[in-house]
């Protein structure tokens, strides 16, 4: 484990303690990761109340499913991020957001510069390297899908592109990410 | 889904969050019934998760911890359904006999399960669900026939470890079954409760426990 990931270890330890019913560890996990996870939910839902719902549901799931976290299979951060993203995505897919809902403030984090934020973990370093290999437009689509939770048709609408074009661009991007990450 | 390339691409699109509602739901059904697909999704989740660093942290509302604390800690106020399970526990001997007779059949079909539970209606009756656990905590729950779930409701699967008083949620159980990773000890009770759509929001069963069975080791 590289020394750039001390927090990942701590988060994993807290998750492990949660799995054994340790309430104080649960609170510490919330204090440590709450703002990060709420930020992830907020980008996807774009509404504070929906983001709060997603964050709450995610933490309830953390408490119930901490025993399912297996450090052999992945990082604790990824476990938490995955839980909150699916809660947020479920909420927005279910409430089938108004298109006007996307018109909130535009966040310009799709630039290569923003990718420097990824290097806080070894997995992030690999992903950054592979994202940088994508064409700018495709990288932007991948990042908007993940960070903003935009679906194929959301992206087509937002970028005024045919749905099929978006779908094939995303698919080709993911294929090249797979090849790059496996290398 | 037979084409591994196509399956992996769909897994990637699901983990990325790019699927629209219908495909999104289809992928969720696949996760439930296709362990290889579920594994592919898990790999992609790990690959893509670092991108979450691109979202700025945002302080949650001040009352959020209180809500979470209440939802997870006060759940033991809701143990009413469990009392019904207690008296039912005595009736598992018959279920174990069924489990034993099914064992050979299961071993032929699946990846060498080590434990099995037969879930029958709490009110009595024949087996409705069969749960098998294979090494690595691969728990597969399959219906034995068709299960009718009332509109607006979901079934939720729970594990109640021996000696514990509060069950642990294993998530919503689709009527056509599900495979998940949940390492469980022998003698753990598997319970299924009827919950509002999306499952219990309290961390404990809120609706009636409708099916139950105890996980027994296969010899």
What is the name of the CATH superfamily of the largest domain in chain A?
RNA polymerase sigma factor, region 2, helix turn helix motif
CA distance, first residue to last residue of chain A: 20 Å
The beta-strand count of chain B equals: 9
Q: Please state the average pLDDT score of chain B.
A: 78
Give the helix tally of chain B: 6
Order of helices and strands of chain B, N to C? HHHHHHEEEEEEEEE
Indicate the CATH class of the largest domain in chain A: Mainly Alpha
Tell me, rounded to a whole number, the average pLDDT of chain A. Answer: 85
Helix content of chain A: 55-70%
Q: What's the assembly state of these chains?
A: heterodimer
Please report the total strand number of chain A as a whole number: 0
Strand content of chain B: 15-25%
Name the largest protein-protein interface in this structure: A-B, 70 and 47 residues
Q: Which CATH first-tier class of the largest domain in chain B would you pick?
A: Mainly Beta
Which percent band covers the strand fraction of chain A? under 5%
With helices defined by DSSP (H or I, 4 residues minimum), what is the helix count of chain A?
8
Instruction: Give the overall shape of chain A, derived from the CA principal axes.
Output: globular
Structural class of chain B: alpha+beta
Task: Please tell me the total number of domains of chain A.
Answer: 2
